[in-house]
Write a structure and sequence with these properties.
249 residues, alpha/beta, Rossmann fold, 8 helices, 26% strand, disordered C terminus
Length: 249
């Protein structure tokens, strides 16, 4: 593999993917994307379908039950795919990963690519995470924008999206691939399962998923404790010259 190569690897075995809806989560504000995608994978019992690998990514392997796995997983069946990163993406890798996901989505005739993330909120910080976070959305097609409004997401009318999710939208646009980004108000310094729960409620309506977000809220403190090291790694990686993540489990 060359220094800048990146590949999506899908296992030959497993249920066929048919014009899927692709949900993408990477560690950013409040770990909202990571928590959302992990919860969907577990609740919907999505099988492991593959991974994304590149020399650009942090040189780590994730260990679950003594088995080593790649840090960016792909889960899915039928018309639903979840792409989940368990490590923060360095800025130099973020562009290439987003570009590859957009290209791969187009190649498998994906229905839509949905990025899920948090938006740091002063209100959430000041209330110490109390209250229900608002979800806003942005899309690159009129159909997508209309779907957001009718399924519980407020329109993100003016502002800026940066980082991985900006790159994902940019390359989906370039490929003519329908794409949406959902952003939930989130805590800036701590994992925010409640923000993930708000996004799951919107996704459930948008994609007709049978997912109850209430257990996520009940387990929020446990999730925060499990995720605190990943949150610290994400904050370090976002800083100029930030170091790559270490093992955090």
């Amino acid at each position: 593999m060359s220094e800048t190569s990146l590949r999506v690897v899908i296992k030959d075995s497993g249920p066929k993917l048919s014009k899927p809806n692709i949900i993408v989560g990477v560690p950013e504000a409040g770990l909202v994307g990571t928590i959302t995608c992990s919860y969907l994978m577990e609740q919907l019992k999505l099988p492991d379908r593959g991974f994304i690998d590149s020399d650009l990514l942090p040189q780590v392997m994730i260990v679950h039950n003594s088995a080593a796995t790649y840090p960016i997983h792909i889960f899915g069946k039928d018309d639903l795919v979840v792409v989940l990163s368990e490590v923060p993406l360095p800025p130099y890798a973020s562009l290439e990963v987003a570009k590859e996901i957009a290209s791969w989505a187009k190649s498998i005739k994906a229905n839509v690519v949905i990025g899920v993330t948090g938006a740091p909120s002063k209100t959430r910080d000041e209330s110490h995470g109390e209250g229900k976070p608002t979800v806003v959305g942005v899309g690159n097609t009129e159909t997508g924008i209309a779907a957001l409004k009718s399924n519980g997401a407020l329109p993100f009318e003016d502002g800026i999206i940066s980082g991985f999710y900006a790159n994902l939208l940019k390359h989906c646009n370039a490929n003519g691939q329908s794409s949406i980004t959902l952003l939930a108000e989130s805590l800036s310094q701590f994992p925010d399962p409640a923000a993930a729960a708000s996004i799951i409620e919107v996704l459930s309506k948008l994609l007709s998923l049978s997912v109850d977000a209430q257990p996520l809220l009940k387990e929020s403190e446990e999730i925060r404790l499990k995720s605190r090291e990943l949150m610290a790694e994400t904050q370090l990686a976002a800083q100029p010259g930030g170091r790559p993540p270490s093992a955090y489990r």
